[in-house]
Amino acid sequence: MTLQFYIDEANAMYERRDQAKVVRQHPEVKVTGMKNKKVTDGFYKAKGAPDYIGLAGHIPVCFDAKETKEKSFPLENVHHHQIKDLKQWEEQGGFSFLIIRFVSQRETYLLPFKAFNRCIEECQTKGIKSIPYQIIQERGKLITAGSNITLDWLTAAWEARE
Q1: Is 111's pLDDT higher than 80?
Q2: Could you provide one GO biological process annotation from this protein's UniProt record (predicted)?
Q3: Chain-centroid distance, C-alpha 142
Q4: Which of 11, 27, 121, 127 allows an S-S link to 48, with CB 3.0 to 4.6 Å?
Q5: How far apart are CA 110 and CA 145, in angstroms?
Q6: 14-73: per-residue pLDDT in tens?
Q7: Structural domain of 47
Q8: Are 22 and 56 in contact (CB under 8 A)?
Q9: Cα–Cα distance measured from residue 116 to residue 83, given in angstroms and rounded to the nearest whole number
Q10: Which contiguous run of DSSP H or E holds residue 38?
Q11: Could you report the per-residue pLDDT of 80-93, keeping only the tens digit for each?
């Protein structure tokens, strides 16, 4: 949840500066149990879309935020339906990507969908189930702090798009 907190914080700053309007998508939940006005049980009605969607400088953006404690990024962390959504976004002219936080390295990367998709293909060919950290370092863009923003993903996105 720390990663999403920093992304939400950045998104609020981008909106105040009129740089982007990006919102977090929440999957619809069917509540099946309540006690004292608190939800005690429920389930997701449908598979969740990528976490964030919006506009950044007139460019449609769609991305998912992931964290890992591993020294590589497990492919199982991104579900098939999320990959499909990110791919469709790209095919329609938008910019889609993953924001991946490596907890033990204390680093966060923006990995464009095209680079991620190439990684998936390479992992499948090699019979491995995760993307090595070094590959994400090479193909992704390190996200750093920006002007009053702890995790300035928008600057990394512009650089990754060039």
Answers
A1: yes
A2: DNA repair
A3: 14
A4: 27
A5: 13
A6: 999 999 999 887 655 555 677 777 767 754 444 566 889 999 988 999 999 999 999 999
A7: 2-161
A8: yes
A9: 9
A10: strand 38-44
A11: 999 999 999 999 99
User: pTM of the full predicted structure?
Assistant: 0.85
Which CATH number goes with the domain that contains 35? 3.40.1350.10
Residue 124 CB neighbours (<10 A): 11
Number of domains in the chain: 1
DSSP 74-102: EGGGS-HHHHHHHHHHHHTT-EEEEEEEE
Buried b or exposed e, range 49-78, using 16+ CB within 10 angstroms = bbbbbbebeeeebbbbbbbbeeebbebebb
Q: Give the annotated binding-site residues for Mg(2+).
A: 51, 64, 82
The binding site comprises 51, 64, 82
